[in-house]
Amino acid sequence: MDALLAAPDRRTDQGARDYALLLFLYNSGARADEVAKLTIGRLRLTEPASVRILGKGNKTRVCPLWPKTSSVLTRLVAGRDISDVVFLGRTNQPMTRFGIHRIVTYYARLTTKSFVAMKDKRISPHSIRHTTAVHLLRAGVDINTIRAWLGHVSLDTTNIYAEVDLEMKAKALASVDISGLPVASHRATALPSLMAFLKQL
């Protein structure tokens, strides 16, 4: 995410807009179509800053905004009407979800030139949404809060992120060399039992 957010040239109007878009996607975990329909009137840019996102089934959820997100959005929407959509294209027409997808994939390709680790990754608005969920989980946010944050109807959908993060943690633990300890387990056989143990926590 750091590499992706560093990619736009924020000295230009388009680069500043693209940076605001990428940062908002990461902060909110919103779907591309939710971002495309977002109007200025749904932003609260004074402290405590937040956004009311209109999601699936016309359900509204409120997400807090980081001070940095609030700051760049304040500059982006300055002097515009509250009924305007937040993110406009080059012709000052509302962006579509396809336009948002195109911007994300463009900067993902640009980033691979300097950040080799992203070369084989398929980066999209949905993968930023996924990253938001996993980072919230790793920060200690409970799974029900993440479900509400992302606008998931079912907790089962959100649990996918917990399982992915759990597997990554288990693999990291299993890769630790414990051969110097008095009682050692072989790393390859330790992973399944470690996964089972972590799921009980």
From TrEMBL:
Keywords: Chromosome partition, DNA integration, DNA recombination
Keyword Lyase: no
PROSITE patterns: TYR_RECOMBINASE (PS51898)
Domain Tyr recombinase: 1-174
GO MF terms held by the record: DNA binding
InterPro entries named in the record: DNA_brk_join_enz, Integrase-like_cat_sf, Integrase_catalytic, Tyrosine_recombinase_XerCD
Protein origin, superkingdom: Bacteria
GO biological processes: chromosome segregation; DNA integration; DNA recombination
Protein name per Swiss-Prot or TrEMBL: Putative integrase/recombinase
Species whose genome carries this gene: Caballeronia sordidicola
